[in-house]
């Protein structure tokens, strides 16, 4: 199984178009200590010829251009992309679907809550005679006919920002079909893809145990990172993300869980691990984690 990280950044990418924080200033200046990142998306394949996207980033066209494995071949119109599996309805995971509107057949998979966001408005440009939508229930295992299976499971999360209501504080951390993780299985290998997660529960840690690879939410390093930077009044928890560090952070939560390879993805532009010479980057490495980057490839 081949896994290509198409985009490793959180919403807005890195540098973010309207941000001049410490990290983004380095990126705008092309400082070698940082590496630009597009918004979160991954491609997986069992045979190197047919690919499934895990989420469709707003930067999808740029990501396809940068990834030869996803280039068209043969006939005048062709794509090796057979499908897209959505983990939630966030804008930075859905809007790349609009890039795929040029009369190409593929299948969109996702939960009922997420697929509902792709069935109206601008998403109507996806020709229903060519683009199938497959609703996947929590706990179901899907065989897309590509040489691997995908099982869905709920992770603590929250509704997308544009669907937040008055009860949002009570909804954060709930395990519903609004935010899911994916377990990809191929010839005895297991990979868990969890780009958004508000909390690492004991059940989630147990599920991931023994996996060959884990691609996990790395949005912020500390819970109050964006608040301290003066860029937002929202903590990581309020945004539906678990921080890397701290007692309840992902580094501590997975410290004793056996996983072949642990990779942080969906990394916010404020996260100090983006600076390759930072103390936080060194701490992440000591804990056995890789910091995902665009173009990173994992072969299992």
In terms of topology, how is this protein built?
Layout: E1 2-7, H1 22-28, E2 41-45, E3 51-54, H2 60-65, E4 81-85, H3 91-94, E5 106-110, H4 112-115, E6 131-135, E7 141-142, E8 149-154, H5 168-171, E9 180-186, E10 189-194, H6 202-208, E11 213-217, H7 225-228, H8 236-239, H9 250-253, E12 262-265, H10 279-286, E13 289-291, E14 297-299
Parallel strand pairs: 3-4, 4-5, 5-6, 10-11, 11-12, 12-13
Antiparallel strand pairs: 1-2, 1-14, 2-3, 7-8, 8-9, 9-10
Q: How would you characterize the overall build of this protein?
A:
- This protein has 300 residues and is an alpha/beta fold.
- The chain has a single domain (2-299), classed as Ribonuclease Z/Hydroxyacylglutathione hydrolase-like (Metallo-beta-lactamase, Chain A, 4-Layer Sandwich), CATH 3.60.15.10.
- The chain contains 10 helices and 14 strands.
- It has helices at residues 22-28, 60-65, 91-94, 112-115, 168-171, 202-208, 225-228, 236-239, 250-253, 279-286; strands at 2-7, 41-45, 51-54, 81-85, 106-110, 131-135, 141-142, 149-154, 180-186, 189-194, 213-217, 262-265, 289-291, 297-299.
- The strands form 2 sheets. It has a 7-stranded mixed β-sheet with strand order 6-5-4-3-2-1-14. Strands 7-8-9-10-11-12-13 form a 7-stranded mixed β-sheet.
- The chain starts with a strand and ends with a strand.
């Amino acid at each position: 199984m081949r896994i290509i990280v198409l985009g490793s950044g959180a919403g807005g990418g890195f540098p973010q178009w309207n941000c001049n924080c410490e990290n983004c200033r380095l990126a705008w200046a092309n400082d070698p200590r940082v590496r630009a990142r597009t918004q979160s998306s991954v491609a997986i394949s069992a045979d190197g010829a047919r690919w499934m996207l895990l989420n469709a980033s707003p930067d999808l066209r740029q990501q396809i251009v940068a990834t030869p494995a996803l280039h068209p071949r043969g006939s005048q119109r062709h794509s090796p992309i057979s499908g897209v599996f959505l983990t939630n309805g966030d804008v930075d995971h859905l809007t790349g679907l609009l890039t795929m509107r040029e009369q190409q057949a593929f299948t969109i998979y996702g939960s009922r809550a997420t697929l509902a966001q792709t069935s109206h408005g601008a998403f109507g440009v996806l020709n229903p005679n060519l683009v199938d939508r497959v609703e996947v229930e929590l706990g179901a295992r899907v065989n897309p006919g590509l040489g691997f299976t995908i099982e869905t499971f709920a992770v603590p999360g929250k509704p997308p920002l544009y669907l937040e209501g008055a009860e949002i504080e009570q909804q954060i951390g709930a395990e519903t079909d609004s935010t899911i993780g994916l377990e990809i299985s191929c010839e005895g290998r297991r990979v868990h893809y969890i780009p958004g997660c508000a909390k690492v529960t004991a059940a989630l840690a147990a599920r991931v145990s023994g996996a060959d690879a884990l691609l996990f939410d790395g949005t912020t390093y500390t819970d109050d990172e964006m608040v301290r930077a003066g860029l937002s009044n929202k903590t990581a928890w309020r945004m539906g993300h678990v921080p890397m560090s701290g007692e309840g952070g992902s580094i501590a939560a997975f410290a004793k869980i056996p996983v072949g390879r642990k990779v942080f993805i969906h990394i916010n532009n404020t996260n100090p691990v983006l600076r390759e010479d930072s103390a936080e980057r060194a701490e992440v490495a000591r804990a056995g984690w890789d910091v995902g980057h665009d173009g990173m490839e994992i072969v299992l």
